[in-house]
């Protein structure tokens, strides 16, 4: 695996509320996009990535897919509870929360989960979003009220129906995906996908080296507006 990553505050935000964690020896990738008042979003996203990272970085060996699913699921629930408890204990953090996209590669299988609208894509012969947004506009798409094209500019496109840390418990769904030759996985916050169209992301990743793709995607997101924090991880199955 070849892994590159980037994070940037963007052109307009004062703080970077995104966090990410990469453990290449464990093939673990975690990305979070925080929300809340002053510094609260930063705290929530950092807590999420650090707690999940620490759970996998310990001495416990992940020996099977079922084992990985159990650890990832329990770790996300644990992080959710700790973020929620922190928000209740400190008034400055009241109402904080974070999105999450997380994945672990084991035996040519991606074990992954997401909460909120941070996404995971598989890029190969095409670019495919493998996660499902927990968002109001995605709900409207599911019930047939709007189209995917209309969702891109919907006034409530940033409204989430689910986020880590906003309730004491949370439903966690962990999925698996068989990895194909030359697969590339993109973990990203919406600061990238809101600024760079899918077709541009696909073209850049397919036509450039990992390092060049990373730099070009970040530069283009900033050039196209950089309205939000920009964070992404690219994992190449070479």
Automatic annotation (TrEMBL):
Residues forming coiled coils: none
Gene3D superfamilies: PPM-type phosphatase domain
An MF annotation (GO) of this entry: protein serine/threonine phosphatase activity
Domain PPM-type phosphatase: start-end pairs: 2-237
CDD domains xref list: PP2Cc
NCBIfam families: Stp1_PP2C_phos (NF033484)
PANTHER family reported in the protein's UniProt record: PROTEIN PHOSPHATASE
Protein's name in the database: Putative serine/threonine phosphatase stp
Source organism of the structure: Peptoniphilus harei ACS-146-V-Sch2b
Phylogenetic placement of the source organism: Bacteria, Bacillati, Bacillota, Tissierellia, Tissierellales
